[in-house]
Design brief:
The chain is mainly α. It has one domain (4-139). Helix content is 72%, strand content 0%. It has helices at 4-18, 20-35, 37-40, 47-75, 81-110, 112-124, 128-131. The longest helix is centred in the middle third of the chain and has 30 residues, at 81-110. The chain crosses the membrane at residues 23-42, 48-69, 90-108, 114-131. Keywords: Membrane, Transmembrane, Transmembrane helix. This is Major facilitator superfamily MFS_1.
């Protein structure tokens, strides 16, 4: 958890400078090659290479969490924030469950290397929905931490 502070600080700074969508796209494009390092490196995978690639991927996951939570708090009216956060928590838990089931299925039928390829490809392409959404052009005002600021879009 020592890297949680850099993720939070860089998430806030970059989202103020580039906007929420653009900052997630920038980090996604920068980190996408790191998620493909593990299946591309031969066997056995060097520990340092795997650790550095994994650290970059985890940084991106944490960065996205900080930026998307700030965005969600900014655009959601305060009276709905609990419902929105609860609904998304259920959806994320379901996505983790589906991901684990997919990994188990692919791993059982095609082997662990193929399961690693599927997981890494998903991590490398996670930024594509934001690229195709209107969020990529939206920014937050100077009051990035203020909940319910739907009128603050620029």
């Amino acid at each position: 958890m020592a890297d949680s502070y850099p993720r939070a600080l860089s998430g806030e700074r970059l989202s103020r400078r580039l906007g929420c969508g653009r900052s997630i796209l920038a980090i996604g494009l920068a980190v996408a090659p790191a998620s493909l390092v593990v299946p591309l490196v031969g066997q056995p995978i060097p520990g340092l290479v795997a650790a550095l690639a994994w650290a970059m991927v985890i940084f991106k996951v944490g960065f996205d969490g900080v930026v998307l939570m700030s965005f969600r708090q900014h655009v959601t009216p305060p009276r709905l924030l609990g419902r929105v956060n609860g609904t998304l928590r259920v959806m994320f838990s379901g996505a983790l469950t589906l991901g684990a089931a997919t990994a188990a299925f692919v791993g059982a039928h095609a082997g662990p290397r193929a399961a690693t390829w599927v997981a890494c490809a998903a991590l490398a392409l996670v930024w594509v929905p934001i690229l195709r959404s209107p969020m990529r052009r939206q920014t937050l005002g100077a009051d990035i931490g203020r909940p319910g600021g739907i009128d603050r879009f620029r």
